[in-house]
Amino acid sequence: MSPHILLVEGRKTGRRSWAPTLVEKGYGVTKAHTRREAFLLLEQTLPDLVIVDGRHLRFDPYRFSRSLRADGYQVPVLLIVPTDWEVERGSGVNVHLREPFTARKLLNRIGRLLPTIGENVLRVGDLVLDVQQRTVSRGMVNHRLTPKQARLLEVFMRHPGQVLTRRFLMEQVWETDFVGDTRTLEVHIHWLRKAIEDDPSHPVFLTTVRRVGYRFTVPSEATTGKKEKE
Q1: Which domains does the chain show, CATH number per domain?
Q2: Separation CA 156–CA 178 (nearest Å)
Q3: What SS3 class is residue 76?
Q4: Backbone angles phi, psi at 178, to 5 degrees
Q5: How far apart are CA 2 and CA 149, in angstroms?
Q6: What is the pLDDT of residue 226?
Q7: The pTM is what?
Q8: DSSP 7
Q9: What integer pLDDT is reported at residue 1 of this predicted model?
Q10: Helix 166-174 vs helix 183-196: angle between axes, to the nearest 10 degrees?
Q11: Helices 183-196 and 147-157: crossing angle, nearest 10°?
Protein backbone atom coordinates (compact mmCIF):
# COMPACT_ATOMS: atom_id res chain seq x y z
CA MET A 1 0.00 0.00 0.00
CA SER A 2 1.68 3.21 -1.17
CA PRO A 3 1.23 6.47 0.79
CA HIS A 4 -1.74 8.58 -0.27
CA ILE A 5 -1.42 12.32 -0.88
CA LEU A 6 -4.21 14.87 -1.06
CA LEU A 7 -3.06 17.58 -3.47
CA VAL A 8 -4.95 20.85 -3.07
CA GLU A 9 -4.36 23.08 -6.07
CA GLY A 10 -6.12 25.74 -8.14
CA ARG A 11 -8.02 24.86 -11.30
CA LYS A 12 -5.67 27.08 -13.33
CA THR A 13 -2.52 25.21 -12.25
CA GLY A 14 -2.77 23.10 -15.42
CA ARG A 15 0.53 21.77 -16.71
CA ARG A 16 2.33 23.14 -13.66
CA SER A 17 0.56 20.60 -11.45
CA TRP A 18 2.82 18.36 -9.38
CA ALA A 19 0.35 15.46 -9.64
CA PRO A 20 2.19 13.67 -12.53
CA THR A 21 5.48 13.78 -10.62
CA LEU A 22 3.87 12.31 -7.50
CA VAL A 23 2.07 9.56 -9.43
CA GLU A 24 5.29 8.66 -11.28
CA LYS A 25 7.03 8.31 -7.93
CA GLY A 26 4.40 5.79 -6.87
CA TYR A 27 2.22 7.86 -4.56
CA GLY A 28 -1.56 7.64 -4.64
CA VAL A 29 -2.86 11.13 -5.43
CA THR A 30 -6.29 12.70 -5.02
CA LYS A 31 -6.81 16.28 -6.16
CA ALA A 32 -9.04 18.96 -4.69
CA HIS A 33 -9.59 22.43 -6.17
CA THR A 34 -11.74 24.05 -3.51
CA ARG A 35 -11.72 24.26 0.26
CA ARG A 36 -14.98 22.33 0.43
CA GLU A 37 -13.65 19.55 -1.81
CA ALA A 38 -10.50 19.30 0.29
CA PHE A 39 -12.38 18.78 3.55
CA LEU A 40 -14.73 16.27 1.96
CA LEU A 41 -11.81 14.24 0.59
CA LEU A 42 -9.95 14.43 3.91
CA GLU A 43 -12.87 12.55 5.45
CA GLN A 44 -13.22 10.05 2.62
CA THR A 45 -9.60 9.18 1.72
CA LEU A 46 -7.65 9.62 5.01
CA PRO A 47 -4.49 10.86 3.25
CA ASP A 48 -1.01 10.41 4.71
CA LEU A 49 -0.01 13.90 3.60
CA VAL A 50 -1.71 17.07 2.36
CA ILE A 51 0.15 19.22 -0.18
CA VAL A 52 -1.34 22.67 -0.66
CA ASP A 53 -0.12 24.46 -3.79
CA GLY A 54 -0.63 28.14 -3.04
CA ARG A 55 -0.51 29.14 -6.70
CA HIS A 56 -3.91 29.96 -8.24
CA LEU A 57 -5.91 29.03 -5.14
CA ARG A 58 -9.13 30.96 -4.61
CA PHE A 59 -8.96 30.63 -0.83
CA ASP A 60 -6.41 31.41 1.88
CA PRO A 61 -4.20 28.31 2.43
CA TYR A 62 -3.27 29.46 5.93
CA ARG A 63 -6.90 29.80 6.94
CA PHE A 64 -7.47 26.33 5.47
CA SER A 65 -4.61 24.89 7.52
CA ARG A 66 -5.82 26.51 10.74
CA SER A 67 -9.33 25.13 10.13
CA LEU A 68 -7.87 21.70 9.46
CA ARG A 69 -6.06 21.71 12.83
CA ALA A 70 -9.09 23.14 14.63
CA ASP A 71 -11.15 20.23 13.33
CA GLY A 72 -8.67 17.76 14.83
CA TYR A 73 -6.80 16.67 11.69
CA GLN A 74 -3.13 16.00 12.48
CA VAL A 75 -2.10 14.92 8.98
CA PRO A 76 1.18 16.60 7.87
CA VAL A 77 0.77 19.65 5.62
CA LEU A 78 3.30 20.84 3.03
CA LEU A 79 2.59 24.29 1.57
CA ILE A 80 4.05 25.45 -1.74
CA VAL A 81 4.37 29.24 -1.81
CA PRO A 82 5.34 31.65 -4.60
CA THR A 83 8.61 33.55 -4.30
CA ASP A 84 7.08 36.80 -3.01
CA TRP A 85 4.79 35.30 -0.37
CA GLU A 86 5.29 36.11 3.30
CA VAL A 87 5.39 32.91 5.34
CA GLU A 88 2.88 32.78 8.18
CA ARG A 89 4.04 30.89 11.25
CA GLY A 90 1.83 29.04 13.69
CA SER A 91 -0.77 28.09 11.08
CA GLY A 92 -0.34 24.32 11.34
CA VAL A 93 1.78 24.01 8.20
CA ASN A 94 4.63 21.53 8.78
CA VAL A 95 6.83 22.46 5.83
CA HIS A 96 6.97 25.47 3.48
CA LEU A 97 8.49 25.06 0.02
CA ARG A 98 9.19 28.30 -1.79
CA GLU A 99 9.43 28.50 -5.56
CA PRO A 100 11.50 27.84 -7.54
CA PHE A 101 12.46 24.29 -6.55
CA THR A 102 13.18 20.98 -8.25
CA ALA A 103 11.11 17.81 -8.23
CA ARG A 104 13.86 16.14 -6.22
CA LYS A 105 13.59 18.77 -3.49
CA LEU A 106 9.82 18.30 -3.31
CA LEU A 107 10.17 14.52 -3.07
CA ASN A 108 12.85 14.86 -0.37
CA ARG A 109 10.53 17.05 1.72
CA ILE A 110 7.68 14.58 1.24
CA GLY A 111 9.92 11.69 2.32
CA ARG A 112 10.67 13.44 5.62
CA LEU A 113 6.99 13.89 6.42
CA LEU A 114 5.83 10.34 5.67
CA PRO A 115 6.46 7.18 7.72
CA THR A 116 9.50 5.20 6.59
CA ILE A 117 8.27 2.14 4.70
CA GLY A 118 10.47 -0.74 3.63
CA GLU A 119 9.50 -3.93 1.86
CA ASN A 120 8.35 -5.59 5.07
CA VAL A 121 9.14 -2.99 7.73
CA LEU A 122 7.15 0.06 8.81
CA ARG A 123 8.82 2.61 11.07
CA VAL A 124 7.19 5.57 12.79
CA GLY A 125 9.41 7.37 15.28
CA ASP A 126 11.09 4.71 17.45
CA LEU A 127 8.36 2.15 16.81
CA VAL A 128 9.21 -0.54 14.23
CA LEU A 129 6.73 -3.07 12.87
CA ASP A 130 7.94 -6.04 10.85
CA VAL A 131 4.80 -6.87 8.89
CA GLN A 132 6.04 -10.22 7.62
CA GLN A 133 7.37 -11.48 10.95
CA ARG A 134 4.54 -9.82 12.89
CA THR A 135 6.86 -8.33 15.48
CA VAL A 136 6.87 -4.84 16.93
CA SER A 137 9.86 -3.29 18.66
CA ARG A 138 10.45 -0.09 20.56
CA GLY A 139 14.02 0.40 21.62
CA MET A 140 15.30 -2.94 22.91
CA VAL A 141 11.83 -4.35 23.67
CA ASN A 142 10.26 -6.75 21.15
CA HIS A 143 6.80 -8.28 21.03
CA ARG A 144 5.28 -10.87 18.70
CA LEU A 145 1.77 -10.08 17.49
CA THR A 146 -1.12 -12.14 16.21
CA PRO A 147 -2.07 -11.60 12.53
CA LYS A 148 -5.00 -9.32 13.45
CA GLN A 149 -2.92 -7.35 15.96
CA ALA A 150 -0.20 -6.83 13.38
CA ARG A 151 -2.70 -5.73 10.73
CA LEU A 152 -4.38 -3.33 13.17
CA LEU A 153 -1.07 -1.75 14.16
CA GLU A 154 -0.08 -1.51 10.49
CA VAL A 155 -3.25 0.46 9.73
CA PHE A 156 -2.54 2.85 12.61
CA MET A 157 1.11 3.33 11.61
CA ARG A 158 0.13 4.12 8.03
CA HIS A 159 -2.16 6.88 9.29
CA PRO A 160 -0.18 8.65 12.07
CA GLY A 161 -1.95 11.52 13.75
CA GLN A 162 -5.31 10.75 12.14
CA VAL A 163 -8.51 9.85 13.94
CA LEU A 164 -9.59 6.43 12.63
CA THR A 165 -13.23 5.52 13.18
CA ARG A 166 -14.26 2.15 14.52
CA ARG A 167 -16.06 1.44 11.25
CA PHE A 168 -12.90 2.18 9.25
CA LEU A 169 -10.82 -0.10 11.48
CA MET A 170 -13.34 -2.92 11.27
CA GLU A 171 -13.36 -2.64 7.47
CA GLN A 172 -9.57 -2.57 7.19
CA VAL A 173 -8.78 -5.38 9.65
CA TRP A 174 -11.85 -7.61 9.80
CA GLU A 175 -13.29 -6.74 6.37
CA THR A 176 -16.70 -5.88 7.79
CA ASP A 177 -18.54 -2.63 8.40
CA PHE A 178 -20.56 -4.08 11.29
CA VAL A 179 -19.96 -1.99 14.41
CA GLY A 180 -22.83 -3.24 16.56
CA ASP A 181 -20.33 -5.06 18.77
CA THR A 182 -16.81 -3.60 18.96
CA ARG A 183 -15.54 -5.76 21.82
CA THR A 184 -13.17 -7.58 19.44
CA LEU A 185 -11.64 -4.27 18.38
CA GLU A 186 -11.37 -3.07 21.97
CA VAL A 187 -9.60 -6.28 23.03
CA HIS A 188 -7.07 -5.88 20.21
CA ILE A 189 -6.50 -2.23 21.16
CA HIS A 190 -5.87 -3.40 24.74
CA TRP A 191 -3.23 -5.91 23.60
CA LEU A 192 -1.53 -3.39 21.30
CA ARG A 193 -1.25 -0.93 24.17
CA LYS A 194 0.38 -3.61 26.31
CA ALA A 195 2.94 -4.08 23.53
CA ILE A 196 3.82 -0.43 22.80
CA GLU A 197 2.88 1.70 25.81
CA ASP A 198 4.95 2.37 28.92
CA ASP A 199 1.72 2.51 30.90
CA PRO A 200 -1.15 0.82 28.97
CA SER A 201 -3.74 2.20 31.38
CA HIS A 202 -2.65 5.74 30.44
CA PRO A 203 -1.88 5.45 26.70
CA VAL A 204 0.22 8.07 24.97
CA PHE A 205 0.75 6.56 21.53
CA LEU A 206 -2.63 4.94 20.95
CA THR A 207 -5.39 7.13 22.39
CA THR A 208 -9.17 6.96 22.39
CA VAL A 209 -11.22 9.66 20.69
CA ARG A 210 -14.51 9.37 22.52
CA ARG A 211 -17.55 8.36 20.47
CA VAL A 212 -15.42 8.27 17.30
CA GLY A 213 -12.49 5.86 17.36
CA TYR A 214 -8.75 5.97 17.99
CA ARG A 215 -5.67 7.98 17.09
CA PHE A 216 -2.08 6.75 16.79
CA THR A 217 0.23 9.65 17.64
CA VAL A 218 3.69 9.88 16.13
CA PRO A 219 5.98 9.15 19.14
CA SER A 220 8.06 12.30 18.70
CA GLU A 221 4.87 14.35 19.05
CA ALA A 222 3.37 12.37 21.92
CA THR A 223 2.71 14.27 25.12
CA THR A 224 1.49 13.19 28.50
CA GLY A 225 -0.83 16.18 28.84
CA LYS A 226 -3.72 14.68 26.90
CA LYS A 227 -4.34 11.12 27.94
CA GLU A 228 -7.57 9.26 27.68
CA LYS A 229 -8.20 6.07 29.47
CA GLU A 230 -9.82 3.31 27.45
Answers
A1: 4-114 (3.40.50.2300), 143-221 (1.10.10.10)
A2: 19
A3: coil
A4: -75, 120
A5: 21
A6: 41
A7: 0.56
A8: E
A9: 55
A10: 90
A11: 80
